[in-house]
Design a protein that fits this description.
The complex is a heterodimer. By secondary structure, chain A is mostly helical. Chain A contains nine helices and four strands, in the order H-H-E-E-E-E-H-H-H-H-H-H-H. Chain B has one domain: F1F0 ATP synthase subunit C (F1FO ATP Synthase, Up-down Bundle), CATH 1.20.20.10. In chain B, helix 1 runs antiparallel to helix 2.
Chain lengths: ~300, ~80
């Protein structure tokens, strides 16, 4: 559904621009099809290379009860697997290198910088000492999302995080981890007691649905934030490059390409920022679960 | 005016309003951060981190509203 809405959005943009442009100018001969440009943003079952394209394997759908699962590998799934593979290789290589020598060098040094940054700026301030247990999860989240986002900026690459299913899955895992952190720190009884908000039992029928809903809005916001941020950059690029085809003149091209370069630089920054934001918000919510909301964070680390 | 036209108009006006809200909110946030940094330069790092987190939260709501505008413009 969302793919169709994006396609219609692009057509709407193009129609309005075309109407504004041809107001008084002679009629254009045929309507330019945005579908090829859009195919780069959407999920498809083939990957493109400089040479041609490669059809991905199609697994017949599984039927589980009333549910039909289509597990065939698409472009976004392929890039997810590729990001996971790169992450595992880099992490294992760096860990092994760091284990061998006392002083980290090379790739081990680089990875250690990131790990220390995550530990001192994200895990410890939000969760305290108890947070070190969740540091591997936070590191995995950060690097996985970062690599997936960066793949979208590479030519012939695709952003897996621009698919709402991927971000929904990440947000679901974050939701589970937040509840695990809260339950492990407070115990099940205390955790359920927090859901009532400490009010008189008369208010429970109102409080409990509201609190449960509040539990779900935070990961939902995480999902939508990542999805919309990753898509927004691509939509702007689509509109800018599409302008060249729309006007069919060469004068527009340098302006359009310059703007596209600027937007791509912004997209690079946004890719890093969104990975960081996802991770730190997850850590923050876990910290709320561990300490209870309204608790002041420790700020005794040196800057 | 037919229903389609009103929907497009609503989507456009809605997007504009959403961006006004987000721009004002994040602008105020940035101003407060700069004030805090001016008063106490040692706390600049902490203020910057909190600013980025708050800006991301505000933008999250913005994008949610923008998604609704896109759905309006296409359904």
């Amino acid at each position: 559904m969302l793919a169709d809405t994006l396609k219609h959005a692009a057509e709407a943009v193009s129609d309005t621009v075309r109407a504004a442009v041809s107001h008084g100018a002679p009629e254009q001969s045929e309507k330019f099809e945005f579908s090829h440009l859009l195919a780069h943003m959407r999920n498809s079952s083939e990957i493109e290379f400089p040479g041609g394209h490669f059809e991905l394997p199609h697994i017949p759908p599984l039927h589980l009860g009333g549910l039909t699962l289509d597990l065939s590998i698409t472009k976004h799934v392929f890039f997810m697997l590729l990001s996971a593979l790169i992450l595992v290789l880099v992490a294992v290589y760096a860990a092994r290198k760091n284990r061998r020598s006392r002083v980290p060098t090379g790739l081990g040094n680089l990875v250690e910088i990131f790990v220390i940054f995550m530990r001192d700026e994200i895990a410890l301030p939000t969760m305290g000492k108890a947070g070190l247990r969740y540091l591997p999860y936070l590191l995995s989240t950060f690097f996985f999302i970062l690599i997936m986002n960066l793949f979208g900026l590479v030519p012939y690459g695709a952003t897996s995080t621009s698919n709402v299913s991927v971000t929904a899955a990440l947000a679901f895992i974050a939701f589970v981890m937040i509840q695990v952190a809260a339950i492990r720190a407070q115990g099940v009884k205390h955790y359920v007691a927090h859901l009532t908000g400490g009010l008189h039992w008369m208010f429970w029928p109102i409080m409990i649905p509201v609190e449960v809903l509040g539990l779900f809005t935070k990961p939902f916001a995480l999902c939508m934030r990542l999805f919309a941020n990753m898509n927004g950059g691509h939509i702007v690029l689509l509109a800018l490059i599409g302008l060249i085809f729309l006007f069919r003149s060469l004068i527009i091209a340098p302006v359009s390409v310059l703007f596209s370069v600027g937007i791509s630089a912004l997209e690079l920054f946004v890719a890093l920022l969104q990975a960081y934001i996802f991770t730190i918000l997850t850590a923050l919510f876990m910290g709320f679960g561990i300490h209870g909301e309204g608790h002041e964070e420790e700020t005794d680390h040196a800057h | 005016m037919e229903a389609n036209a009103i929907a497009y108009l609503a989507a456009g006006i809605g997007s504009g309003l959403v961006i006004i809200g987000a721009g004002l909110g994040i602008g105020k946030l940035a101003a407060a951060t700069m004030d805090a940094t001016g008063r106490q330069p040692e706390a600049a790092g902490q203020a910057r981190t909190s600013m980025i987190i708050a800006a991301a939260l505000i933008e999250g709501v913005t994008f949610f509203a923008l998604a609704i505008c896109i759905i309006l413009a296409t359904k």
